[in-house]
Amino acid sequence: MRSHRLSVVTPYRLDLTVSALRRLSTNVVDRFTSDGRYLRALDGEHPVVVEVRQVRRDRLAVTLHGASRGDRAALATVRRMLGVDRDLDRFARSARRIAWLAPLAQRMRGVKPPRYPTLWEACVNAVVFQQLSVVAASAITGRLVTRLGIPVAFGEERLYVFPSPDAFQAARDRPLLAIGLSAGKLATLRRAADAIGSGRLDAPALEALPSEEAAAVLRTVKGIGPWSAALILLRGFGRLDVFPAADTSVARNLALVRGARDIRATLDALGQDRGMVYYHLLLARLESRGDLGRPSP
Q1: Which of 29, 31, 138, 209 would bridge 214 by S-S if both were Cys, CB 3.0 to 4.6 A apart?
Q2: Residues 163, 167, 168, 173, CA torsion sign
Q3: Which among 282, 231, 277 has a CA at the least distance from the CA of 252?
Q4: What total of structural domains would you count in the chain?
């Protein structure tokens, strides 16, 4: 067990950021406890359990459990996943000028744009969530993780390492279809796993590209269209200059926000920070369901 401290760019709220990352409290990979700890089992030669608490407005306490050889990489992953270095002052200033967004942004002050730790996890979440409700897609993802992921016991918690591309490719079609994946999504994920394994999809290479060019590379995988590519860039690479405009939940989430109107005008006004609208609308939905910051079951 090794303890570390991470400074964060304020304002920062771990509970809101974890809510944006996991989508629903039923997420079996990203866990949030009743005493405010974020738990995650990270992949590697030996899984490392990350335990994160917010101890001050500008400080997180990170405890790493397990093999110590990957501590530096694990801490770097935590920094990226939890958005601790992201400065959102420009977004906050712009949001204050948008009548319907201002009160929502004030209530969600401190949320940072989270990121999945790997390109593969971002691809899986984008593809599984295509044209499904958050509840249905989250259930399918949960069944995928518990079937193929490595279980890790941590106190009273049962954590799972997100299944690797190799584990996915080694699985037969029938059990993957049985958990709710469609044949089309299964084929897309197999193509994505192949592309990542061969290096045709490479996270560092995509990181170096402008968002429009990176999206074009992602769309070379059959089954990853403009919406999926935007979601991968937003949730996998922290690209706030993209917005998954065809997201089926956007209209429903907008209806929950008093006075919300023309989303296109809002996105134009926010420019390079438009992706934060996605997270704020997601949090508005969780707030309406009583699932915002709720501890994991």
Answers
A1: 209
A2: negative
A3: 282
A4: 1
185-217: per-residue pLDDT in tens?
Answer: 999 999 999 999 999 999 999 999 999 999 999
Interatomic CA distance for residues 24 and 20, integer angstroms? 8
Contacts of the segment 102-105: beta carbons below 8 A, 24+ positions apart? 103/258, 104/257, 104/280, 104/283, 104/284, 105/280
Which residues does 240 contact at the CB level (< 8 Å), separation at least 6?
91, 113, 234, 272, 273, 274, 275, 276
The per-residue pLDDT for 144 is: 98
Say if strands 59-66 and 38-42 run parallel, antiparallel, or are unpaired: unpaired
102 touches 274 (CB < 8 A): no
In this structure, what CATH number is given to the domain that contains residue 57? 3.30.310.20
Q: Which domain holds residue 33?
A: 1-85
Whether the predicted model's global pTM rises above the 0.70 cut: yes
Q: From CA 42, how far away is CA 159, in angstroms rounded?
A: 10
